[in-house]
Amino acid sequence: MKTFDILDLKMMESIGAYGPRNVTSIARKLNVPAETLRKRLHRMRSKVFLYTNLYHTNLGLKKAFVHAQSIPGREQLLFDSMKTNDFWIYVNRCYGVNEGCLGIYTIPKEHTVEFEDFILELQKLGIAVDTKLHWSTCFQAVHARLNWLSPNEIRWIFNWDEWVSEIPKETTKLPYTLVDPKDFPILADSTDLFILKEFEKDPTVSLVDVSARLGISQQLAEYHYKKHILSRGLVESFEVLDFRFDMNSSDMFYFILAFDSWEKLAKFASSLLDKPFALGLGKILGENTLLAHIYLPKVEFRNFVDTLSRLVNLGLLQNYTYVIQDLRKAQRQTISFEYFKDRTWVYDHSKHIKNLRALIE
Question: Considering the entire predicted model, what is its pTM?
Fold first, then answer.
């Protein structure tokens, strides 16, 4: 734990919770000069990644989490194939028993059946052995940095026994991002989506620059930001992705965790919201199942799995599976704002299938 000091971790925790556009108020909360915070943030930009997490639910988009198991020798082809659908936002390789790729997509709510056909086409064309698709809520970013950290020695203490004892006592009140939405309304217009796309590229971009790129006045850009983007809940949170554990001796995972009741799911999810090894959580729609983005040192991974096994035996968890992410082969893209016309998403299923088949040929 040499990369960051305590103030760095406090700053990242606060930026995740309040956003990188509120440096002055964060500095006040941390009782440090705003200029000090800005300098630290500038220094850290080479070590961390800042993301704007959109609340896709209020953009009329349904989130899909896809795992496709590759046919040996076609791993790169599978990776490229999963990007032939215009609505992907993240694709990366994964390895282990289920060697293949992970994909996260945001699909217009009226076109979910067509997207399911697109994923099945990966198998029909002989690129994937198997595909699994889960419709999920938006992901809740976990901002915790300081829990399980020994401040005197600046080292991590993994209190697995303590975590097990915490879970039954946790609250069942979850963040709205982990509750099945009743609908997927479109609460944005084209100007909002352009601004959101710019925020995804750089969460610290000024509205002056955004308005210039969009060709509108700064006042109009500020109106859309305050009255649409903020008031209508189009941004879920900001995320600071840092490698708080040594990257060379740690791994990232996606876990699928099943429970036999909503109450057990809620208590488990609540217990992760202040843990430094959890990066983000989602909930599979209509099921008592969590998606958990986990980052752990290799030496602690077996302890984590042993703890999950213990939770199964205690009846607090029903089942779990996981894949290991290959961060050497990962890509993100912004929301596909260019396919939003007249307040409607244009989803061209036939084009996606045609592009997929052309790539194979």
Answer: 0.92
3-state secondary structure of 130: strand
For CA atoms 28, 34, 39, 42, the dihedral sign is positive
Amino acid at 170: E
From the number of C-beta atoms within 10 Å of its C-beta (0-12, 13-18, 19+), residue 73 rates as exposed
Tokens 């925790």, residue located = 13
Indicate where the chain has its CATH 1.10.10 domain(s).
1-46, 188-232
Question: Could you tell me the fold of the domain covering 1-46?
Answer: Arc Repressor Mutant, subunit A (1.10.10)
The helix (H) or strand (E) run that includes residue 165 is helix 160-166
Q: Count of H helices and E strands in the chain?
A: 12, 15
Burial label, 254 (beta-carbon count in 10 A; 0-12, 13-18, 19+): buried
Q: What is the dotted CATH code of the domain comprising 188-232?
A: 1.10.10
DSSP element (H, E) containing 272: helix 262-272
User: What average pLDDT does range 188-212 have in this prediction?
Assistant: 95
CA distance 90 to 280: 14
Which amino acid would we find at residue 305?
V
Q: Indicate whether 118 pLDDT > 90.
A: yes
Q: Which two tokens stand for residue 1?
A: 């734990």
**Does an H or E element contain 107, and which?**
strand 100-108
Look up residue 280 and give its two tokens: 């983000």
Q: If pLDDT is split at 50, 70 and 90, which confidence band does 153 have?
A: low
Instruction: Give the rounded distance of the alpha carbon of 333 from its chain centre.
Output: 13
Share of the chain above pLDDT 90, in %: 75
Q: What is the pLDDT of residues 76-108, one digit of tens each?
A: 999 999 999 999 999 999 998 789 999 999 999
Residue with structure tokens 């554990």?
245
Is there a contact between 19 and 238 (Cβ–Cβ < 8 Å)?
yes
